[in-house]
Please model this.
Amino acid sequence: MTALEGDLVYGTLANAPANLAPLELGSKASVSLANLNDWYYIDPQGTLQGGFTFAAVFEASRRQQKT
Model:
């Protein structure tokens, strides 16, 4: 995320999107908060913010490895 203005989030794509031509790795993009289903960024202190799907998948994997 590079900016948050009203209900729009601005950022730069950190991966190559599968079906969003003509967007590609490094493209600047914006999206309405209502259209986000997961997101993450590293804040200035180096702490992960968001990434809820990542956290859930990581926890499920950790639990599965214990069995």
